Amino acid sequence: xxxxxxxxxxxxxxxxxxxxxxxxxxxxxxxxxxxxxxxxxxxxxxxxxxxxxxxxxxxxxxxxxxxxxxxxxxxxxxxxxxxxxxxxxxxxxxxxxxxxxxxxxxxxxxxxxxxxxxxxxxxxxxxxxxxxxxxxxxxxxxxxxxxxxxxxxxxxxxxxxxxxxxxxxxxxxxxxxxxxxxxxxxxxxxxxxxxxxxxxxxxxxxxxxxxxxxxxxxxxxxxxxxxxxxxxxxxxxxxxxxxxxxxxxxxxxxxxxxxxxxxxxxxxxxxxxxxxxxxxxxxxxxxxxxxxxxxxxxxxxxxxxxxxxxxxxxxxxxxxxxxxxxxxxxxxxxxxxxxxxxxxxxx
Length: 347
Description:
- By secondary structure, the chain is mainly alpha-helical.
- 73% of the residues lie in helices and 4% in strands.
- The protein has one domain.
- It has a three-stranded mixed β-sheet with strand order 1-3-2.
- α3 (69-92) packs antiparallel against α12 and α7 runs antiparallel to α9.
């Protein structure tokens, strides 16, 4: 067939007009090698963060250090904002705190910043739901059912960003989800199935929605510096995380200190978290949220391999099987073949 078979999802004219207003304007996209390099930095910083956190957990058991998750998350948010201010100053000579407080364009900048309130709030909800879910479930259960965010991301990518995915790419996302399920599934995890799992599904959906909405916000203001966009994202993120954190886990903020019995390993944890967050933002603006989801999945598979090499942790059959599934999904998503010409898109 010379033309593509297209499965179209109809919507009302009013919905179409509203959708057109939300359509992001594409900034210049990165080429193959810069995209691979950015994804590599994202994956590498995630893996190194995992190893650093595992190390401080060991120190914590020995009583040599403490790990306050809430305080470190806030420290990383502050660090990302400071780096964004620095990068903006180095690239253009603009000192963002001056521009948004007394600069002549301050009112315009604050009006523009409203775009980042929603994704910042969604990310804050996601972060604080993590505390709730880790009280309800063990970490393996949370990780297992959080993998549905890949499919949520696919649906939102099509219906909110109005992009198209071929049936082959949908199949790749499905295989990716199954592969990550295999990594985390266990008899103990499956005993936890119940109504409470809706809390994890809500967290997974918020993760996907925040990523997609963040891409919309970044690309809708395509001509705006990403450093300025990041500044507002992290500023609102700090405020929302603090407010919600005081409601959900006040003891984390009021009774514990990141500097209590601190260890030098906290510095690379904050540094790596900062690099990871900034590269994620660049991926959302200059590539797309699907590529970020794939990068996160590859990181999940590579982490146990690195942990085995560095920490001596054993590899399991689940790690190997999940790795095969993830590699197959990456191959299917980025190559042409059966199902590659049948697309599903929102009009």
